[in-house]
Amino acid sequence: MLENWVVEPVRVPLIRRRCHVCASDTFRTSGKFRVNANHKLIDVWLLALCTACGETTKLTVMERMNVRSVRPELLDRLHDNDLRLAAELLQDPVVRRRNRIALDWDDAWRLDTGGSDHLDDEVIDVSVRFAARIPVRPVRLIAEGCGLSRAEVERLITDGKLVSAVRLSGKLSGDFTFTLKR
Predict the structure, then answer these.
(1) Distance CA 89, CA 100 (A)
(2) Rounded distance, CA 40 to CA 176, Å?
(3) Which InterPro entries does this one have (predicted)?
């Protein structure tokens, strides 16, 4: 039987960026946007606060764009300070590259196994789906979902009892499946 697991965010991830006031390198966002229109052009920033000193930084979302090229629904979400939109924009590789930031997903996600009661079966097939692009080590997910230690999961991979079409070392942020043979 195929088990379905979901990796889902529980909060907006921290933003990795050096603070120019203190020595901290993490910021958090509350989802507030600053929208500035100058005639037909619009600039949009996502505001973030330093976790140590509270200094505000602006992350560029749009720069010198024609107002008519921005969808009205998007403008409404920006003006409403939509936290979901902030989370979506933080995951956008263009926004991250433009602002030279990285995301810190530690303690910002959880694994929902759907109350698996087949973990004692001889063979289990699991499909892992990501609700957001959260980079996580598959070994950690499998250990957490099956109630094993990471060392045990590594041993199962080495012994060929844990197999997947994707490489289980490193980090993944996309859906994958695996089979565990006890």
Answers:
(1) 14
(2) 45
(3) DUF1062
The residues, ordered by sequence, that sit 6+ positions from 103 with a Cβ below 8 Å of its Cβ are 13, 14, 15, 16, 90, 91, 96
Secondary structure E strands in the chain: 2-9, 14-16, 26-28, 33-38, 41-50, 56-66, 102-104, 109-112, 123-130, 162-164, 176-181
* 3-state secondary structure (DSSP) of residue 105: coil
Residues 11 and 108 sit within 8 Å (Cβ to Cβ): yes
Average pLDDT by consecutive 10-residue portion of the chain (182 residues)? Answer: 87 94 93 92 96 95 94 95 93 94 92 73 88 90 90 92 90 91 82
Q: Measured between alpha carbons, how far is 162 from 178 in angstroms, rounded to an integer? A: 7
- CA–CA distance, 22 with 165 (Å, rounded to integer): 45
Q: 42 phi and psi, to 5 degrees?
A: -130, 140
In total, the chain counts a number of residues equal to 182
The Cα–Cα gap between 178 and 2 comes to 10
> What distance, in Å, lies between the first and last C-alpha atoms of the chain?
15
